[in-house]
Amino acid sequence: MTAIPSAARVCIAAAVLCAAAAAVPVVAVLSPAPGAADAAVPWTTVLLLTVLYAGCELPALPLLPAVRDAAPARRPGDPVPAGAGTFFPVLLAAAFLLPPAAAVLVPVPGALLGRVDRPPAGARRAWRAARSALGTWAAAHTYLLLGGERTPGAPDFPYALVPALGGALAFWVLLTVLDGGIRVMADGMPAARGALWRRVPLRTVRRGFSASPVPYCVHGLVGLMMAVLWVSPYGPPAALFVLLPMYISCWIFAQYHRERAAHQATIRALVQAVDIKDRYTRGHSERVGRASALIARELGMEEERLEVVRFAGILHDVGKLGVPTRVLRKEGPLTPQERRVIELHPEYGHEMVRGIGFLGQARAAILHHHERMDGSGYPYGLVGHQIPEYARVVAVADAFDAMTSTRSYRRARPVPVALAELRRCAGTQFDPRMVRALVRALERHGWQTSVTSDETAVALGPQRMPEGPGTGASHQIRTG
Q1: Are 477 and 402 in contact (CB under 8 A)?
Q2: With respect to CATH, is domain 278-463 assigned 1.20.58.2140?
Q3: Average pLDDT along the chain
Q4: Transmembrane residues, as ranges (predicted)?
Q5: CA torsion through residues 48, 54, 59, 62, sign
Q6: Domain boundaries, the chain
Q7: Axis-axis angle for helices 432-445, 284-298 (nearest 10)
Q8: Between 389-404 and 284-298, two packed helices, what is the crossing angle to 10 degrees?
Q9: What is the DSSP secondary structure assignment for residue 448, as one 8-state letter?
Q10: What is the pTM of this model?
Q11: What would the mean pLDDT of 93-103 be, rounded to a whole number?
Q12: DSSP 3-state of 430
């Protein structure tokens, strides 16, 4: 999805207008009135800080092309990566050194020149420039309101700590409000009528306003250190040394992305191997991962846990690599012995991924995704909440996709029928909480059914949830 919703475009336009209005007072000081020498803008400082911030952002243009190619595209509403904002100290130093209207100008060129991963690039660059400018403006005003000096010198350093932290917190508050607001506009606005507070899900608001203030306080202290060194006898060159730890952290963050891309490549290779071996369920793993993530997001899981759940869904059937191909591809009914062989695939999968440390609790989900709430599942017959939470999520996602996918030996069930069957088996085979979460997620997002055999694909189209409950199916779910 590359289109920006109309509500989000309005939000972007409003932010751009507010940023422009915040910069208007700088026009008045281009020709200051007599006796108002203190109102003059230190344009040399503005230019140096602007170039410095733009230079810090420019390396992001060609950064790690292999990582960009390997990593999945971020979806609307996904959080900004944890390393974003590495060069916020430059903006906060500008807020502590310059009048607010001049500080607004510093982030604009760098934000406009920075890399944009998805179109429309113009709107996304405008949003990034406006939010950074408004954050810097808020930090500068708060710093002055709390008694901070516009050019803090070394003797005033201890007294500038409180205004600097206040400015950093104002920077955090405004960026968090802006990011949370546009995320609600873009991702949390269902079509139902009613008051806004009723229509926007709490989980969307929580995800939108979940940024921690601690990193921003650290950025504020680093920005204050830059400002102090900037006006010291050593001058601006000394302030550049403060950025050295920022560059080191940026390098570490790049290494993290490189490692994460390697993780993604490992997962893709395993999934492709399963798809090649079991042609009847081709694409099933990716869809189970997607459905698992929908359930986890509906449950309000944090992004880090949500990623683990998605990994678990994608790799839940990796143990099929240890099952003989003739058994997987058998057209007719399975014998009891063949059934026992297939039921070993969770244990095979757990053994295969046991040494992959980044999977974390996803390994337990791979092992236990065929356990049932009443204890009749396998491999260990766990009961109720003895079954790991991630495994209960994947079990529902696995069964749902198995029922709604067309395969060579049967047609897909309609989405309402599949959900009715999940409801019927809730409490015995499935965790009712996970079933309810999937139903709510599909009411918002719908589901695209697929063909997972070697036959020519049949376009079934997205199936949206109706207003009323579906008709339950009469037989027990077989997943696989």
Answers
A1: yes
A2: no
A3: 77
A4: 87-108, 158-178, 213-232, 238-254
A5: negative
A6: 6-28+40-256, 278-463
A7: 100
A8: 130
A9: E
A10: 0.54
A11: 91
A12: strand
